[in-house]
Amino acid sequence: MNWNAWMPPLMIASSLLPGLIIFGLTEERVRLRTVLNLSGALVKLVLVGFVLWGVSQGQQYETRLALLPGLELVLRAGPLSLLFVSLSAVLWLVTTVYAIGYLEHSPHRSRFFGFFSLCVTATVGVALSGNLITFLLFYELLTLATYPLVVHRGTEAARHAGLIYLRYTITGGALLLVATVWLYTLTGTLEFTPQGFLDSLGAEHHTALIIIFTLLIAGFGVKAALVPLHGWLPQAMVAPAPVSALLHAVAVVKAGAFGIVRVVYDVFGVEFAANLGVLAPLAWLAAITIIYGSLRALFQDDLKRRLAFSTISQVSYIVLGTAIAGPVAAIGGVVHLVHQGLMKITLFFCAGNLAETLGIHKISEMNGVGRRMPWTMAAFTIGAFGMIGAPPVAGFVTKWYLGLGALQAGQEWVIIVLAGSSLLNAAYFLPILHRAWFQEPPSTWPKEFDFGRKETAWMLLLPPVITALMALAAGLLATSTFSPLEWAQFIAEHEFSRP
Amino acid sequence: MSAEIYAILLSIVMVIAVAWPLLLAIPALHSRLYWPRHLAIVPVALLAVLPGNVSLQLPWLLFGTGFTIDDATRWVLAMSVVIWFTAATMITSSKQGFANGRSTTFFLLTLAGNLGAVLANDLVGFFCFTTIMSYGFYALFVQNGNAETQRAGRLYLIFLIIADLLLFEALLLAAFTTDNLRFEGVREAMAKASSSQFYLWVTFIGFALKTGIWPAHLWLSSAFKSTNQATALLIIGVPVVMGWLGAVRWLPLGEHAFGISAMIIQMIGVIGVLYATLKLCTPTSVKIVWMSSGAASLFIAALGTGLAHPTIWRQYEYLGYPFIASLGILLALLIVTIGWTQKTRHQHPAVALPRVEILNRWIGATRQWGEDTLLGLQSLWHVSWLKVVKHYQYSSHWQKLQDFVAGWNATITLFVLLGLALAWLAA
Questions:
Q1: Residue B241 and residue B175: Cα distance in Å, rounded?
Q2: Residues A128-166 pLDDT 10s
Q3: Model pTM?
Q4: Of B131, B142, B161, Cβ closest to residue A423
Q5: Which positions in chain A touch B128 (Cβ < 8 Å)?
């Protein structure tokens, strides 16, 4: 095993090892737990930066371990994997800082941070998977690692939400398993390959392939919250804010969307999938989800539920970009993995700050909160404008590429969906901003905590401000070197150019 | 100083002109400064008076946008400086809560967006900066406002979102057609494109909504009715004039004759002017709305002419920017004059102009006289304007005529100048 082969397992170990140690720590070992959490996150970030540079220079990073006869556990750091890994690594660090501040006086912190690290380990594993079976293993690990986080509060509502989450995700996992085994029996391989590995199969398998594609999309669609498989996501809002941030921006939902991208690009191949006729229905499903999620968000008074329905809508941009089947739309879809992550995590951090500082959970309680918490609401404003797709925030770049891609692919109807979605996004985000900035604040807040002269604890304030600035930079400096957009263009070249 | 060094210095001033207000928008910074609004205008004022043309490309910013300062842009920039400086002075001298820290942040954000849009040399830059400007302006408009202002703000926001969506579609169409998104490149490419008619209409409607021309004047009307004088001034300087500027820059003018579409746009302009003129004569209208709408319609009529006759546009293109700047300055002057006149008479709000009832009383007197004389079949020798004046004098006082002339001298001047400008353009 050469040095490059060690890098993917090291990236996984950088969160797995601290997580396992943290499980064994008592509640009182606050400092050690914090050091382990932060050092793990920092080491992962350094490793990812190193591999990112190596891949841009043409280096290969791959690890193969025999799993079963004929099946290997493959970890490979390709351009697409690294986009997702980078997102996870950066946002894990920020979320860890936030979670330390958020759970400062909560019980069961070692359990929480143990599963938190395990969750990130599974996400990085999903991202680095070099074949479908490795993907499936880490994908299921992710389900198991996130369940304790969803039920962390231990309330009746949390347990109920956890049960629903398990029902959905385990069913999704079962569908994936069936599809994976069926695919293996047809092809004898599950290796992710640019432009797919199925085009050698004859026309007699096309019906089977359509069914396999449907099963895979249904399996991944559960976590990606595609309508009608989205029911678990709004329920999971009972989880603490760092978990919601993790579910919506870094791990679970993204893993589902990333799975769909992998299936289309590296299992079926865009061209083959388009010829099979499965991409058009996928695009329509994504479009329906985009509009449905936005419509449902419009009528939620609970802030986190509104954000949850917004996630349902926004994650489908990734699926839409993939299903449009063109290099430009692919850039829009892939880059939205990062952009949605940055913007949505900002919004969830802010929602957490409002709840933890002033006891605000509902939009109707947000009158004048911008005067009381200006930095939090400034970050929220940037995130919300990004979601609407207003320039110069990152969401604009996504909509730009999706729109251009749709025109390029001759699918003008997508423009109408994007416009409708922007309109609905504006309809459910702008009233929040209006309330926060331009309504008179109440004489007392629902449950105010004392932070002295500061608007809130710095560990709660810093993460949303940083992620908001990152979302702004991702839009403003989209064409600069090493921006998410540049990397997405690199991926599109990789996925759409025939070797 | 060599030409190269001078160009570099000018480029630096250009970037600072946009970045400085953005930086000052941070509350921790502007709260430590005296007159931050005025300070924010200093670099752009310098840029407006420094001679020379320079273009700066920033490939790492917003898909490779850039800034340009040339003789044409300088007209609009100078107008912006005057309007923003006046508004800043009005706000600073205001005793109301309008001059608070939050207002300063929104003011500076809007200013930065406005200046960025004026200096932008491509569609993406213009779109991004106008977005910052428009939402900043919304914040400036509704903060500290009463329920009526908030309602007007909501209406503005709805128009703004729809306009931005339409312009985003136009932007996508342009980017799909050409890689060169600089104004001249888009103009040339879109004139030849198969989607040129669609592009023309989407762009036109987008900017029509932003400028509030008839029949999309609803937000303008409600905004003027409910706001104070400084914001009324900024309505002219921010959404209205920037909408005109956008239309000139985005539409494929001077490249291709658009036939029926151009004629329809001309017609809309002419109808708009006529409608605004009629509305000016109605007793309950807010006069500045119709002045502004009329000026916008006049501008639309000129645009329609440019779209119908590309050779005429090319011949007189250099007048476009001075024309926009003149209209903007004249409307601003009108608002200031009205405000000043009303202030001397202790009347609020700034732009509602109840004194214009005098005009309506003239019309009423004329109608009454007509009924008395013509419908009463009296001898025709009675029909004289002297009688009208006499009749008016019965119902009012001669002093009111003097008041009317004094109060509306800016308006009268505006219309004379507009008429001259139109005649000049038509010639």
A1: 25
A2: 999 999 999 999 999 999 999 999 888 898 999 999 999
A3: 0.87
A4: B161
A5: 391-392, 396
